[in-house]
Write a structure and sequence with these properties.
By secondary structure, the chain is mainly alpha-helical. Helices cover 69% and strands 2% of the residues. It has a two-stranded antiparallel ribbon with strand order 1-2. Helix 6 runs antiparallel to helix 9, helix 6 runs parallel beside helix 10 and helix 9 packs antiparallel against helix 10.
Length: 272
Amino acid sequence: MTTLDRSTGSTTGSTTGTGAFAPAPGAASVGRQLVAQASMEARLMLRNGEQLLLAVVIPVIVLVGAVRGAERVDIGLSGPPVDVLTPGVLALAVMSTSFTSLAIATGFERRYGVLKRLGTAPLSRGTLLGGKVVALVLVQALQFLVIGGVGLALGWRGPDGVASVAALVLVTLAGTAAFASLGMLLAGSLRAEATLAAANLVYLLLLAGGAVVLPAENYGGLGDVVRWLPSGALGEAVRSACDGVLAVRDLLVLVAWAAAGTALTARTFTWE
């Protein structure tokens, strides 16, 4: 008789009374598929120099350069530059990893047939997206340690208590879901080269005018507009969280972007 090892998703078999082998194929549970996919995605991201550049090096350069520059040039910040800019750079790190890196990597996975082969496995679109999101959260924990450490070295006071940390985790997860769904939507709709160009262009536009690093109030009359963008909502929510306040409005904007992006990705994403 053949049995299925549900802990690994593999099958075992034995000969029947007539000497014939009777296989019993089966898939691993969704939970085990999710863990395996997330583990693979995280390892691939950490081994890729370009991904690490987007995830850590660029945000650290932006943080140090912005803080040092703001100390010499008045840009109208409402508080000490390091306390305003560090949360913004944390939000930028979430955007760079969840959107730009994910879109580019997934786009080229489609081009080289990696996703097509995954599509032949019992791996649903939801499990694939979930595995990538979990991997992103693991990488972002590393990002926050590095960027937060640099911020503390520059004089940042850090989150204001346990409630502030809880709010920061919540808005980071919402921002990750929003940008990951949009990144997957882009990667699943365009050719790899077009995804590369579009993801970098959107990243630069949101960095410059999306209220992610600088507060929305610094954009004058456009401030109320950019807060409806996922970048503006994430930037404002992270800054508020570091001050011990949960920005419910901005959190709901992120949830809405995540829901819309996920729904569109589920309808349009193709494996090749």
